[in-house]
Amino acid sequence: MVGPETSPAAYPPIAAETATIYAAGSDAFGAFMTTFDEREQGFERKFAHDQEIEFKATARRNRLLGEWAAGLMGLATVEEYARAVVKSDFEQPGDEDVLRKVFEDLKGSGVSTTEGEVRMKMQELLAVAREQIKAGE
User: Fold this and answer.
1) 63 Cβ partners below 8 Å, 6+ apart?
2) Which of 25, 73, 115, 137 has the smallest number of CB atoms closer than 10 Å to its CB?
């Protein structure tokens, strides 16, 4: 028997409109999104942001390294050499292509340095580049 208490019309509609889908909200298709989905998207955005910052820091490090090496070699075209160092990073994944280019250029120009010294300078300049990026420079 259906009385007034058990009639479906007696209960208020729950989330009748997509705008009232609890606190979690909905996606572009109007589907219910859980807090877990939102956290996942937040982590994905943070990861993408961190990767972008690291890419910018690496490119800046390479420019600074090129400027440093050009100064040691006594080149008049410091900016041009720095751009060449930045471009050399796109030859292979990792930092070895940059290290190889700078070390061989230094050695070829008669600058007395070791591969370890260049590698340490790369690490030092990466820290400087990260700080510059964080500072908004």
Assistant:
1) 82, 83, 85, 86
2) 137
Report the CATH number of the 48-135 domain.
1.10.790.20
Distance of CA 7 to the CA centre of its chain: 56
pTM of the model: 0.69
Which is nearest to 69 in space by CA: 124, 116, 126, 107?
107
Domains of the chain: which residue ranges? 48-135
42's CB contacts (< 8 A; 6+ apart) are none
Residue 10 DSSP class: G
Q: ∠ CA(77), CA(99), CA(84), 5° rounding? A: 30
Q: What is the pLDDT of residues 9-65, one digit of tens each?
A: 555 555 444 444 444 555 555 556 678 888 888 889 999 988 899 999 999 999 999
Please work out, in degrees rounded to the nearest 5, the angle formed at the alpha carbon of residue 55 by the alpha carbons of 65 and 41. Answer: 165
CA 100 – CA 118 distance, rounded (Å): 9
